[in-house]
Automatic annotation (TrEMBL):
Protein name as catalogued: VOC domain-containing protein
Organism: Kineosporia succinea
UniProt xrefs under PROSITE patterns: VOC
Cross-referenced SUPFAM superfamilies: Glyoxalase/Bleomycin resistance protein/Dihydroxybiphenyl dioxygenase
Domain VOC span(s) in chain numbering: 4-114
Length: 120
C-alpha cells in the first residue's frame, strides 16, 4: 500500500481571500475557486497543494499546525510578506533565529534563517 500526501487543509472564514493571499505569498497557482473552497498548487497539476475550506468560526488560540519556510534572505522575505499583510506575532518563541508571522486570518507560520552549510 502506498500513501501519497495530497494537500493541507486550512479552515478559513474567507477561503478565497486567504487562499489568494497565500497564492501571492508563495507564487503558487489557483487550481480551484468556489464559494466555500479555494485550492492552490505549486504549479498546475503539481501536488501537494493547500486547500482553504470555509469554517464560520474564527480561529481561537495558537495554531496546532503551522508551516515553516526557509528563504534565501530572511529579512527580505519577512519584509515582503509584511508588505502583503502578514504581521509579526509572539507565540513564546523568545529570541529565536526564526520570525513568526501570521497570515490575514491569524494562522501562524515561521520564516527560518539561512541553512547552515552542513545542512542538506
Amino acid at each position: 500500500m502506498a500513501l501519497r500526501w495530497e494537500q493541507v487543509i486550512v479552515h478559513a472564514e474567507d477561503p478565497a481571500a486567504l487562499g489568494q493571499w497565500w497564492a501571492d505569498a508563495l507564487g503558487w497557482v489557483v487550481d480551484f475557486a468556489g464559494d466555500d473552497e479555494f485550492e492552490i498548487l505549486p504549479a498546475p497539476g503539481r501536488r501537494p497543494g493547500i486547500d482553504f475550506v470555509r469554517l464560520a468560526e474564527a480561529k481561537q488560540g495558537k495554531s496546532r499546525l503551522h508551516l515553516d519556510f526557509r528563504p534565501d534572505d530572511q529579512a527580505a522575505e519577512v519584509a515582503r510578506l509584511e508588505g502583503l499583510g502578514a504581521r509579526r506575532v509572539d507565540i513564546g518563541q523568545g529570541d529565536a533565529s526564526w520570525v513568526v508571522l501570521a497570515d490575514p486570518e491569524g494562522n501562524e507560520f515561521c520564516v527560518l534563517g539561512a541553512r547552515a552549510a552542513t545542512d542538506g
